[in-house]
Amino acid sequence: MTLQVCCAEDFYDKMEDLINSNVEQLGYMLPLSRERINELFSPSTSYVLLEDDSVVAAFNYIGGHEKTSPTGFLRFVVQSPHYVKEIIKNVLRITVAQEKLWIRVSRFGYDREIIKALIDVGFKVGAEIPEMASYNGELYSQYILYYDIKPKYKFKVEREYKNEELYPMLSLEKVRKTSFRVRGLRFSDLEHYETIFNQPNVFRTMGGGVFEGLIYVDKDRIINAAKKREYYTIVCVDQVIDKPVGFLSLGSFPQDVLKGVGNIGMFVDERYQGIGVGSTLLENAILLAKRLHYRLLFLSVFDTNIAGVKLYEKFGFKEHGRVPGWFQNGYVKEIMMTRRV
Hints:
Aminopeptidase
């Protein structure tokens, strides 16, 4: 049998059939629309594996950018775990050409044979997040796996400037007189949202943001997502100045098997960090999670964000592993944490 990799757009109907025949590998239970498949397997970044004339695997590869620049992200569906090795062989050609350091992939625990096939070709489990996925009436772990590509290079691929203080913490005077209350997001909050997100002491701890003043906030997307109830954003307001000083978003994952899990993202005005805004937001996020009938809360945080890790641990979040792939002040790992609701 001859195996051949081809562009997905040339075999899109056959790829769609393969995906919908194995849709549970992606965390969905029913066939996906073409629009949704296009989101997951964009024709410009997706490929199929042909065995003779049959599509036996489909994979999507995206090279990370900005803080995820060292990493390539892989998503795939296979007719059989037997084809995992061929997918990885081809993806390695791309990632090495792009000077990536790691490949990252996520799988659910009910796909044990596929997880084993990934480990057999050199992947390591960076995080095993228990009870994330609900499938056939049982709870399964979600596995975040990574492949270390550095041994593939004949030159030193790690950057020499990695230890420079690329995102220095700025010394600021904290606000002293405060009075906090929490409410939902309003249209008028979006200017404050963008301003706070772009503060150097804020984006230094986040996945987005590499330089002060660059645009990282799509305000239309935020409002549309809020209207669609894709996630709920709560705001901590300093009543002394009547302005937002912190934001926390709680949303659902798109996959059916993750609908019982709430995903948290939070940031706080740099002048208000360490004086109770984060705690106030998390207290209310837990209440909101109960109202939304979640059983588990998930978040991730850089291992260099010591204050953030301590805050989450204070509220009962537990660590389930650390996955490399980010570049900030050096190469940093992402800590995966959950808390029962």
